[in-house]
Amino acid sequence: EGAGAPARWHAPLPAADLFLKPANLWGGQGACRITYVATDQAWRADDQTRLTPDTLAAYADRRFHGLSWVLQPCLTNGPAWAKFSPGALCTVRVVTGRENPDMPAEVIGGFMRFPCQGAVVDNLSSGGWGTDYGSTGRLGPVRSLDPGSPLFDRHPDTGAVIAGTVIPAWDRVSALALRAHAPLSDIAMIGWDVALPGDEPVLIEANTNWGVLLDTPLGGTRYVDILTQPRWRCC
Question: pTM here?
């Protein structure tokens, strides 16, 4: 929704938890879970404000001081990923790239993120944990953004084994990102955030400014080969 614009719900708001976040910030800044209270037939924000379809848009405008915002269904981890989180949604960042518009997209690299206890997002900048993965989706040791962070083989909160584990549904997660990049022939690289709320992965968002990998040097990936192609150098 745009700041100050009347709310236009494209479908009735579901009687379920919602997820509200600014549209133009990064790292999970400002994101919050809005909990549906069935007995009240209304929602409660994390500051306990009672919300209805008539008041939610104005609340979001106030909360984000006029910034544009996004309201989505609040997804939860499916059974295959539930062990990797004490609550919030896990996502896999899949970075795809193509040497030129006529070539198919390929997976360049990426990482998986794991929320910490009490967090509403999995971003490392919000206290989460993460690790890179190899071409087969096999995860490495997990760490935080703290330069002094030790490496863990297990999730520090849930105890789930991470290091050496292949991302559940990796083949479908990577295939989804590649299909999404296929029609976007004018973009060299995209970092896709993919979740697994059920049996099938879903795209959460696309990032053209996708940062860097956690531990893998970009020089050890196809990053340099792709971005030094004449097609991308001239754009």
Answer: 0.89
